[in-house]
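Section 5.1 Outputs to date
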Amino acid sequence: MSSAPSSAAHLSLRTPLWAVRIRRGDGEIAGAGVLLSRDRVLTCAHVVTPGEPVTAEFVGAAGGRAPGGRVPAVTARVDEGAYVPEALDTDQDPRGDVALLRLDRPRPAREPVTLHRLSAPNRTVRMYGFPHEYNGGVWFRATIVGGWGRDGQVQLVPATPGEVAAPGCSGAGVVDDRTGAVIGIVLTSVTDRLGNAFSSMSPAETIVQHLPQVAAWTRGRTAVDDRLRSRTGSGGGRPSLDQPFALRLAAWLRGDGDQVKISVVRPGDQIRAETLRRAITLADRELRTADSVGRASLDAPGTVPSAGGHDLALDVTGATAADTAERVAERMGLWQHPAGPAVERIRTGGAALTLVVVGVDRAADPPALLDLLAVLRRGGSRLLLVFREPGPLYERARAELVDGPDRERRERLVARLRELTGPLAASLGDAMAAVRADDPKQVHDALYRAGLALHLLTGTQQPRERSGHGAAGTPAAPAPPPHPPSPGAPAQEPPARPLSAPAAPSAPAAPSAPAAPSAPSGPAAPADPAAPAQAPTGAPASSAPVDLAAYERLADRLETRLRAAADRLDALRRRRAELAGRLDGYHALHRSLTEGAEDLDVDALHRRAHRLLRTRPCDVPAAEEAVAAYTDLVERADSSRRDRAARDGRGREHPTRDRPAGDGHGQDRPAQDRPAQDRSARDRHGQPARHGQPARHGQPARHGQPARHEQSAQPAQPAGEEQRQRGGGGAPS
């Protein structure tokens, strides 16, 4: 059996030996599977039907062909007690959909593969499936981005839109790129109403939870130490629950909270200790059984975390920092270079996980353990740390892992908000002074909210959850982000719980250019009895805890909105400049056509377009319409001139053949030899005719009317006489 995964550098792109193509009785491909033992195949429940045989084809075996050029195939059936159909839980989240097949004939011992327990977040993976277009098998790439539902399934986002797991991929093995280990199977693919496509995977632990017999073919230590497993599944009555503690734990395990959470569970506090074990057990994919969930459902809503809430839960009582680092590195899949220190592999591995560490102050070397935890925190891991007693180690952990990083995080957030309300607001003001925004109220509202958030943060400097749990106190509820009124509306006080901040700044009255509201002075927030007596240096004395994550999400939304508005305004400014250049160019063309002569209609259109382009702020759509009206008229005039010039040119090149020479009209002669009444006003007076009027003494003709020629003061002479006067010597007619 292939149990040791290869490194990512040696991953083969060939069809794996363990990959199974499953066909129904009618010959259609139903899906894929993973050969776990010589006679067991893991697949999805919706691929097969209990009692109905299917054909398992081993496309990667012996180079993909058996003697005679056929793919090796074996009849298979659903194994007894190994079928968990897909179902929806009370939250309408999917669960189950796994099955185990038994082969009629065993396969060679070198073909099976084992599953591996690994932390799931942000891993790049590949899967080998059999879509209809590639029924010989093809690799799909994806990234694990997070949990899906409460069953412990995870979401796979395809590397490219064309790599979504298609029909024929259900049950395909998912291979971790870093380690080469098979860590789960593909369940299904989903396309939402917005067109976003993704797939789901059942990790090894979730598969074992539904099919306990699969544990025999699964490697890697379980995620939860034995001492941290809840005893609610055993006999006896249901123990009491510390409900506030359970609510906070469930919220953190769902990802609703800070990166690092520190709690105290004193020795002898059985209720609090069991509440902690219950949360850890329910959040584990493998231990979250129907029995444990059924018991937990009797408790208050919100106290039951989703499966997959943590990746590893360790009781480090008496353990060294090196031992703990090895456990963490193993769970991360950092098996390369095992001779090197595990902490260095963690530091450089680029992996992160959600880790629960119980008994931090009871470890063999707590200071060294805190150094390891600091490395994990900097790498992006989420940490739930449980101390047995408050004391110097507890205070150091708070200072190094919570308070200090929170201050740095707050400073980055404040700098970001100052950028939005300072340089970006000034840039938006300049742009909105130049061109009219599509929705200026939205811009003002976003700047108002950013200014209010900045005011609340700079006036509330105490880190969130400064007080601990148990003996150290109970933390206040997280603060929601501010929701100030839109500009033009009366200012409202921010939420009183838990952000007791100075009064909100008054709403700006929609000026022509936005301005970030400055933080007004106001009464200091009431002091929190659980907070220290002194605020951080340079900050107002205030105690209200701040949910920095909520403010960061607010800043993300506001920045996205303001950057998009800035981009739209920049595009309008560029368009205004383009229109101004276009207007100038067509004005020059018009002057060349009329040689500077006045044209009231065209000039009126030019003046309107010019005025709209120079108005501040410029209404670009209106200016665009005005410029288009002017340029269209100029283009029509230019087209008419070109048409007349073309007709005149053709007349000179092809004189009328039906009319004899000397017919008295001069149509067969050059322009200089024609009678005076057949010459244009420009030929006679040197000035263009005005549109719409006869050409009189050099006045141009108006649009829409041909130039009418005055009668010559001298009668036209016969052609022969004219020639004789010019010395032509022609014979008289």
